[in-house]
Amino acid sequence: DAGITQSPRYKITETGRQVTLMCHQTWSHSYMFWYRQDLGHGLRLIYYSAAADITDKGEVPDGYVVSRSKTENFPLTLESATRSQTSVYFCAISQTGGEAGAFFGQGTRLTVV
Amino acid sequence: GENVEQHPSTLSVQEGDSAVIKCTYSDSASNYFPWYKQELGKRPQLIIDIRSNVGEKKDQRIAVTLNKTAKHFSLHITETQPEDSAVYFCASRAPGYSSASKIIFGSGTRLSIRP
Questions:
Q1: Cα within 13 Å of Cα(B72), Cβ side
Q2: CA separation for the pair A91, A72 (Å, rounded)
Q3: Is A14 on the interface with B (CB under 8 A)?
Q4: Number of Cα atoms under 13 Å in the Cβ half of residue B27
Q5: A42, A90, B15, B98: which could form a disulfide with B108 (CB 3.0–4.6 Å)?
Q6: Mutation site for A-interface testing, chosen from B39, B90, B99, B102 by largest number of A Cβ within 10 Å
Q7: Other CB atoms within 10 Å distance of the CB of residue A107
Q8: B100 closest CB neighbour out of A42, A54, A92
């Protein structure tokens, strides 16, 4: 579990501000994912990455930007935060793109006021 | 697009009874089906998984079944205990051949165990 770290754990930001959530792994897993968790919606995929410099949109990518210049880092940026982006954000990693589950970070609770 | 439907959204069972959660997936290419348990305020954790070449898998009080023809899979918890109270998520994953392989989750089932 210590192999994946999210920061910050809690963040309050104002509408319209840019905010970046960090995800760092020490296991060199190829796949990384960003999910948001809202009551009644479960875990919705925002973006995912199969390797450094390869990213793909998930179910709810609008308003978010990702990059993956290094295998171990997968930051998620909210370009102009809106109240609807208030959520708990989870980063997850997976060893391969095949029959493998994902391991989650501790989550970041983001509040947009 | 691909989606996973999960039912029921809430489930309350008497301690010692069994609980069943059902999921349906849409992507026929999906070949891996993990289940996660999330306790209040914690991260989701993988508790069991099943691959498409297997119809059933058991791990102590937990079992998963898969019906590929119907695109259904289910989680069965027997002899439920208070510590089983949590939110459970099913998920599906298709192999990454022409595109990257993503993991899609159901909307979750809140399981409560009554003493």
A1: 7
A2: 12
A3: no
A4: 21
A5: A42
A6: B102
A7: 22
A8: A54
CB contact under 8 A, A97 and B1: no
A30 chain-B contacts, CB cut-off 8 A: none
B34: tokens are: 């993990």
For residue B49, which amino acid is it?
A: D
pLDDT recorded at residue B95: 82
| pLDDT tens digits along A24-39 | 999 988 899 999 999 8
* Nearest-angstrom CA–CA distance, B58 and B48: 8
Contacts of A41 in chain B (CB under 8 A): 107
Q: CB within 8 A of B23, min separation 6: which ones? A: B4, B5, B6, B7, B33, B72, B73, B74, B75, B90, B92, B106
Q: Under an 8 A CB cutoff, do A92 and B93 touch?
A: no
> Going by DSSP bridges, is the β-strand pair B4-7/B19-25 parallel, antiparallel, or unpaired?
antiparallel
Give Cα B12 to chain centroid, integer Å: 17
Angle at A45 between CA A39 and CA B112, to 5 degrees: 35
Q: Check: CB of residue B36 under 8 Å from CB of residue B89.
A: yes
**Min Cα–Cα distance to chain A from B106, Å:** 6
Q: What confidence tens digit (pLDDT) does each residue in B59-74 have?
A: 999 999 999 999 999 9
A with B: how many residue pairs have Cβ under 8 Å apart? 72
Judged by CB atoms closer than 8 Å, whether chains meet at A43 and B43 is answered as: no
